[in-house]
Amino acid sequence: MRFSTRLLPRVATALLALGIAVPGASADFRSIAENGTVLYDAPSARAARLFVASRYTPVEIVVSIEGWAKVRDPAGDLTWVEKKALSDLRTVVVTAAVADARLSPSEQAELAFQVRQGVALELLEMASGGWVRVRHRDGQTGFMRMSQLWGL
Questions:
Q1: CATH 1.10.10.10 matches 8-89
Q2: What is the mean pLDDT of each run of 10 residues along the chain (152 residues)?
Q3: How many Cα atoms occupy the beta-carbon half-sphere of 141 within 13 Å?
Q4: Domain covering 92-150 in this structure, CATH number
Q5: What gap in Å lies between CA 142 and CA 110, rounded to an integer?
């Protein structure tokens, strides 16, 4: 039996959704495009409404079917959302009680700003040594430790 090259990404996504590691596969993160986006328990607008998500909330796509995506949110909940409600904008959410953003990717660098748990930040770039560059919605930018963020 031969696998179609179009089928392989779907198989990899299904294995990842089951928690099975797939060499070379990376997580697909997006963000919620608008405030008030409804998350459902099944891929249908007639399914039970579970949550209402805020704009910029990062989500990980674990299964993708026509028009719908099964997503994992920062709390680890799995729900369904219409694909049209997702943005390509990459955001992360702070998981530490308070996280420091530095002017450069170093613990010794000057403090740029601090952010409380649950705040969503735009992901600008991956830096070396476990750091990422982020932008706060007020325009401030800085480098934060990857270990203090979800959505990477």
A1: no
A2: 42 45 64 95 95 94 95 94 95 96 96 96 94 96 96 92
A3: 9
A4: 2.30.30.40
A5: 10
